[in-house]
Amino acid sequence: MRVALLGCGTVGSAVARRLQDRGERYADLLGRPLELVGVAVRDSSAPREGVDPALLTTDAESLVGRADVVVEVMGGIEPARSLIEQALRGGAQVVTANKQLVAQQGEELHAVADQHEVGLDYEAAVMAAVPVLAVLRDSLAGDEVTSVRGVVNGSTNYVLDLVAREGVPFAEAVRQAGELGYLEADPTEDLEGLDAAAKAVILARTAFGVRVGLGEVDRIGITGLTDDDFAHAAQRGSVIKLVASARPAGDGVSVSVRPEVLPAHDPLAAVQGGTNIVVIEAVSAGELRLQGAGAGGDETASAVLGDIVRAARRVR
Ligand code: NAP
Ligand code: HSE
Predict the structure, then answer these.
(1) How far is Cα 150 from Cα 289, in angstroms, rounded to an integer?
(2) Domain CATH number, residue 26
(3) pTM
(4) Distance between CA atoms of 57 and 63, rounded to whole angstroms?
(5) Is 307 a pocket residue for ligand 2 (Cβ < 6 Å)?
(6) In the chain, N or C terminus with fewer CB closer than 10 Å?
(7) Are 4 and 64 contacting, i.e. CB atoms less than 8 angstroms apart?
(8) Is the pLDDT of residue 47 over 90?
(9) For residue 248, what are the domain limits?
(10) DSSP category for residue 254
(11) Region 169-188 average pLDDT
(12) Could you give the number of structural domains in the chain?
């Protein structure tokens, strides 16, 4: 089974290493080996620890043409979108961790996947290691989800937690998060709630099976918060969290991302640092809580590898 990897950064390099380390395990699981046939990057001369340099290529299009499973971990909209579409049209299974692409183009890409009878999976795009999409899509398929609510952006939670627990001024906490590399290359992705909005859209579609776009998210980021807001919340024994939520509304769904003042007993209030949490309410299951690492190379690779195994099982 030929696997092509598009991208070899934080996530891609972890996926490549695990595909190599766990080769025997995957061969036993699938009945045939998963062969990494190439890794597309921008700079094929840069060394990549634990990745065979002979696998590196800058010709992503040719690589896509010779794989059964294409794994996109490049990020961005183009050329990721075109390469995924090429893969689907060519009959390959596709796995991606690209939340913005799935939020913006997921419905169109699913249509192409359905037309060509192949799969498109993206568990890693929402809450990285936490298997929330599988729970919503598979485990709760026979139930009726009534609400999904969570802290799904680790960087902003790190900032908010630093202010709440250590009394660091808000602007200084943002500065420290940037210095530690916790914020995206474009920090507005995190701070203005764009990253959380993309994840909320994917959660809403998966939970409620509705068409919903990024433009329909009622979104407020954390940049408008002041030290006074944090002081008032603390006086009331509460904390401020950036909350993403989705629930049915009329024929559609209401999706929002905004800072909320939460009482200490709220399950979202206790989540610390870069950790993510989601609380799902379903008619028969009641309340379910899923919590864990929402970022990180190896943690995100866990979800990507799960999708690769799922995709490989579909390859005839
Ligand atoms: P990254 O470290 O910036 O790595 C991106 C990789 O893609 C690099 O190897 C880069 O090549 C390659 N690349 C970018 N544009 C390319 C192009 N046009 N052609 C060929 N290769 C190209 O990114 P990352 O953190 O691994 O994230 C990858 C994806 O996973 C993103 O969609 C991100 O949102 C998602 N994700 C990440 C995390 C996380 O914790 N990092 C968590 C959840 C989801 P060079 O190395 O040559 O520059
Ligand atoms: N910037 C994102 C976050 C990375 O902080 O959650 C993982 O999607």
Answers:
(1) 9
(2) 3.40.50.720
(3) 0.97
(4) 8
(5) no
(6) C
(7) yes
(8) no
(9) 133-293
(10) E
(11) 94
(12) 2
